[in-house]
Task: structure prediction
Amino acid sequence: MEEENGLVVRIRAEILESSPHSGWQRGKAGEKRDVRCMTFERYMSLCLYDERDGYYRSGQPRTGRQGDFYTSPAVGAVMASCVAEAFGRYAETCGEPVQAIEWGVGDGRLSLQLFDLWAESGSSARPYRQLLIEDHPGHVEAAKNGFVHRGASPAAVLYRTSRQIVHEFDELFGGHCVFLLANELLDAFPVHRVQRLDGELVELGVTVTEDGGFNYAFMPLSEPEIAITLERDGISLKEGQQTEVALAACRWIGELGRLKRGRLLLIDYGHEAEEYAAPHRMLGTLLCYSGHRATDEPFRHPGRQDMTAHVPFTSIRRAAERSGFRVVYYETQKRFLADYGALERLRDHSDADPFSEAARTNRAIRQLLLSDGMSETFKVMILDKVE
Result:
């Protein structure tokens, strides 16, 4: 008999023994049955970030062919070249050294591509240090190996976990200008799930089933900020409609408001508020990924699959402005790539080899700009903070 997933045991125990929340389910005849539950946000947080068994804290590397999903750096250095261009434009305005930070590094591919571009350019518009923030031990090791292979000096690259940043924020983020990149980070923050039920807004909780698994339950809103956020963004759900509320991502933006001077470059898939109340979004945007296959089954493999929700950029913008940031750029990824030099990287070539450098670069640009509408779904938001 297969040993039970330790994370499942701990989630089950928390729901039944220590969770402060209670909710209800509906029986076959429509009757209410009281149950113990936790918020979906708490369940998602444990599945992704549990210190022992969380998806982003344990197991094999999560990106690339052997992982569960791809990110834009996997199709070449085109995105890196555009990010480097964005960094250069910002550095020119600072008049002082700039630290480049990537939060949510993954296997380090994008950071390594940026390091290579800055080394090759010889330009003065390069960071005095790269700070990489990543919680998955396997990803950190992959990134370190890549920088060691390139001969990077220890002083040029620092590695920290998100927990370490909490204690070292002022030391690492203070002083010089900061350029912080978050590429597909915001979609990985846990979300609250809500539903319009019998005309009332209720939260979707997680309860234990008779066979020891998990399923949804209804519960009162766990935080007033959930309803406040939806009202502030003008989101009015239809009867039976579900959506997500990204309080954790907004609070992360709020914490970064402690920056004295810096620029945030946020790249992620998401929408403005009106999309979340659209008729085709009756079940929200939550998806799970395993082996490059997407499902809407968050209770299937706790801790062993990615869980993600589209980023509500209306909420992110409001959170940023409340924290002292100013939006200086907001476009689709497709527009960002064009505005920051991707088209200039297209090369004329007569080489018949489809694997030549020029052919690979051109193919990567076409894939990012033209493939299946994702470059339109992905958005790029640039936020500035000035003392």
The chain is about 35% helix and 25% strand. The two ends are 60 Å apart (CA to CA). The CA atoms of residues 7 and 50 lie 8 Å apart. The first helix runs from residue 6 to 18.
